Structure formats: C-alpha cells, structure tokens
Amino acid sequence: METQVKAIRIEKNGGPEVLKLVSVQVPAPQENEVTIRQKAVGLNFIDIYCRSGLYAHPLPHGLGFEASGVVEAVGSGVKHLKVGDRVAYGQSPLGAYAEARNVPADRVVKLPKGVSFEQAAAIMLKGLTVQYLFRQTYRLQGGETILFHAAAGGVGLIACQWAKALGVKLIGTASTPEKAALAKAQGAWEVIDYSRENVAERVKELTNGKKVPVVYDGVGQDTWTTSLDCLEPRGLMVSFGNASGPVNGINLGVLASKGSLFVTRPTLGTHVSTLAKMKAAADELFGLVSKKKIDITIGQRFPLEAAADAQEALAGRKTVGATILTLD
C-alpha cells in the first residue's frame, strides 16, 4: 500500500534555493527493504556536495543518508527487523530528508534503549565515520598522539570523545577560541586555533619534534599541505572529506620528500559494506553512547521544510556539533 509523505527533492544542482518540499509516494517495501516512519534526520557536509553537484547523481533526487524512526512495514526476506522496531541508518541511498521512506534492510540497525531517535540521527553517519577512521582505517590502540581537523564539528566532537575513551591524545584544530574550548571540553588533549597559530609548528611543539603517526582530515584543500607537514616519517594521511573543497593535482613526489608518507581517501560505505559489518560498527558506537562515553551535542534543530536554512548554516560554519531535521 502506498503512503503519501512530504520530502525534500532537487531538480537541478545549485545553492540551498534548489531544495524543494514536495509530496511523494512511498510504495510498499520490496524484498529486503523496510518502510521507516522517520523521527529525525541527520545533516552532513556530503548532503551539500550532492546538492551542489560535487558528488553527481542523476537528477531529480532526494538528499540525505542518515535518519532514525520506527519500522512501519517489512519486505519479504528481512529477518532482523519487525514492525514497531526503533531503528536508524547512516548509509542509505539518497533520500533521508523525508517523513517516511523505504530503505534497504541491510543498512538499518535496531536502536538499543539507551539511544534516542535524535541521538541516533545525529550520530549514525558521523559516529560510524569515526568508528571506521579510528578502528579500521588506522586502528588506534591507545597511547598514540593524533591530529584531527575541525575538532568542534559534528564528526570532530565524537572523535574527541572516542579518542579519550581509547586513551588516545587527540590534537584538534578549530577556527575560534570558543570552538577550541568546546573540543577540549569533549576530550581533546590539546586544540590549536588555526586562525591564530601555525598548526604544523604547534604539532611539532606538542610532540617534542616527533610529529604524529596519523592525521585525520575532513577539511580537504585548505589543510592538505599542513596535514602532510604534521606527519612523522611513514605516517598516514587520512583524507576523508572536502569541507573546504576537494584536494586536486597531487604531486606524489611531495610524499617522498616529506618522509615516505602514506595517503588514503577512505569512505564509510567500503567499511560497512555488509549487514554484519554495519552491525559490528554500530554496536561499538552504541555501546559507547549507552555507557555515556560519547554524548551527542546537537547544536541545531530545524524542521524538514527549513532544510535549506540548515544547509546554509552548516556550509557557513555557523553550526556547533550536530545538526538535525526534526519530524513530528
């Protein structure tokens, strides 16, 4: 049976003004799908890349990859979910900006009692990102000193707390004293205000000249060279985002001259490609949330129809912590 719901769609790439609130039909779930009546939707920089066309998708299309809600219908072949389950997902096909939708069941996990709908919507994509960065891309054991850019952002604040829980010294970067203080309060060992300090020099000071074995960089173009300068010989540059624009025209010789460095450009999808991998990553994340080792800072809430305003705030670096769209 089809249901009519409100959803955000774009018909062309561009600025926030291309986001339109429309009525769409949600058909009965197909095999291995579930229908989710959504409670909260997470906003991420990747949504802006999809809107602008940096990450191109066939138009018209929806936006958003993460949300939480309640299962309304279950397609054949789905064994791990049932109607009424509280669920969340952080790696779906485009289209999370909606009141209800169908999602492949292998992207959907059950929420434990200790995790709310708002927390889940704010943490799935960002939290699973930190999980794969810290536990899969470069598996932190505890005791390391690392550099994490944009430490007061949605991903950054989770990273600060996760690093602390692991016994890792996270050096963060932030653009204002207020953001630096927030990252510090969330568990960062030290925070560098890059508007006033030289990041590479400060990292060298903080590590007594040794520098760091790994840099996690979701900023992109603006921080690329600085990040390489913070790495010890044979260190790993993890470039996982493009908040300031993509990194282009790389000269591989630079990696040699700066100490036989490694570079990776990982994505979440590769690391949670099966239901088993998705559940394992989510279990680790939810465990830390339930134990209060990770507390989700939701700095901004917008209704679905104000999605354009929400994206503008995110792109303008006017947000702190996570931003979510709320649904009745």
Structure report:
With about 325 residues, the protein is α/β, with parallel strands linked by helices. The chain has two domains: about 5-125 and about 295-325, Medium-chain alcohol dehydrogenases, catalytic domain (Quinone Oxidoreductase, Chain A, domain 1, Alpha-Beta Complex), CATH 3.90.180.10; about 140-265, 3-Layer(aba) Sandwich (Rossmann fold). About 30% of the residues lie in helices and about 25% in strands. The chain contains ten helices and 16 strands. The strands form three sheets. Strands 3, 5, 6, 7, 8, 15 and 16 form a seven-stranded mixed beta sheet that branches. Strands 11-10-9-12-13-14 form a six-stranded parallel beta sheet, sandwiched between helices. α2 (about 115-135) packs across α3 (about 155-165) and α2 (about 115-135) packs across α9 (about 275-290). It is globular. The two termini are about 20 Å apart. The mean pLDDT is about 95. One of its GO terms (molecular function) is NADPH binding. Keywords: NADP, Oxidoreductase. It comes from Pollutimonas harenae. This is Quinone oxidoreductase. It holds the Pfam family ADH_N.
Keywords:
single chain; 328 residues; alpha/beta; Quinone Oxidoreductase, Chain A, domain 1; Rossmann fold; 2 domains; six-stranded parallel beta sheet; 10 helices; 16 strands
Number of helices: 10
Order of helices and strands: EEEHEEEEEHEHEHEHEHEHEHHEHE
Our measurement of the CA-to-CA distance between the termini, rounded to an integer number of angstroms, reads 22 Å
Q: Into which percentage range does the β-strand content fall?
A: 25-35%
Biggest beta-sheet profile: 7 strands, mixed
**How many structural domains?**
2
CATH topology of the largest domain: Quinone Oxidoreductase, Chain A, domain 1
Protein name: Quinone oxidoreductase
GO molecular function, one term: NADPH binding
Keywords: NADP, Oxidoreductase
InterPro entries: ADH-like_C, ADH-like_N, ER, GroES-like_sf, NAD(P)-bd_dom_sf, QOR-like, Quin_OxRdtase/zeta-crystal_CS
